[in-house]
Structure prediction request, 287 residues.
Amino acid sequence: MNDVQILDRPQAVQGSGMLPSIYEVRTRRRELADCVTLEMAPLEGPALSFAPGQFTMLYVHGVGEIAVSISGNPANGEALVQTVRAVGAVSKAVCGLKEGQRLGVRGPLGVPWPVEQAFGKHLVVVAGGLGLAPTRPIIYWALANRERLKSIAVVYGTRTPDQILYAPQLLGWSNTEGLQVGITVDRAGEDWAGRVGVVTELIAPMLHDPEETVAMLCGPEIMMRFAADALADAGVAQDDVYLSLERNMKCGIGWCGHCQMGPHLLCRDGPVFAYPAVRDLMTVWEL
Ligand SMILES: Cc1cc2nc3c(=O)[nH]c(=O)nc-3n(C[C@H](O)[C@H](O)[C@H](O)COP(=O)(O)OP(=O)(O)OC[C@H]3O[C@@H](n4cnc5c(N)ncnc54)[C@H](O)[C@@H]3O)c2cc1C
Ligand code: FES
Prediction:
């Protein structure tokens, strides 16, 4: 019995994701003034496979480790694609990595978006700002499964036109059959011919049959709360609304308690939740 426990321990640590794999940056693309997308590949073996909504812990040697959502195509196992905004020491170090430089990657971690819940229904993705990065894998997945969905809509809002993430790709998607894209910005100059206003105003016009709709939300929490209310007002069942939450994370695997939100550890029980599971917690200040 003891032998089994001694042997099990290192396997449990490795299997549960505490040991980083070494990845190399293959390409680095600037998306916005403070935001880059890295395509990374492991030094050995294939890139990790993941489900939409999962994240990794990215470790820059001598600086630290942060949680970052996977924003690539789940069907493409060749590279790990992640979009990072430089807000503090670690994210700035990740954004500053050059092609050929290495970093540690743990994952994939976390509960994915329950994308299969959308089979036979209308799927609506509502994203705000950088929230398009964690939701982009849903869109890749939906396009690959479009014959099993009644419709696909992407509702995207951000502050200004120069803050639109993946702008060329959004433009391409807006011309893709079977995919409806709505974009709005909070404020814009005269050179912006698109819509100005909050993202919640765009939701109802893009719904086909609210009672047959599954919605997936990611963005600032205040935006997600208003979006969830707009969906409810339009008749979408709250059980069919899912969202992805962010909290400061250290271990990423349910050990340290840093990401606790009420009864949930976001890294272990989330980051994706059905809205009713977190609705009341989201209104508690600084929880
Ligand atoms: C599940 C999950 C998925 C995530 N996915 C992504 C992703 O795809 N891309 C990405 O860029 N980030 C993502 N984040 C956020 C990322 O982990 C943080 O930005 C990062 O931990 C900041 O660490 P830092 O050391 O660079 O900055 P810190 O020194 O920790 O923070 C610097 C400053 O930035 C503020 N800050 C911290 N986090 C954020 C934030 N998320 N937004 C705005 N301000 C912040 C802090 O309050 C502080 O004022 C995700 C977080 C979680 C939990
Ligand atoms: S980050 Fe340690 S428990 Fe979630």
Observations:
- The first strand starts at residue 21 and ends at 32.
- Residues 2-15 form the longest helix (14 residues).
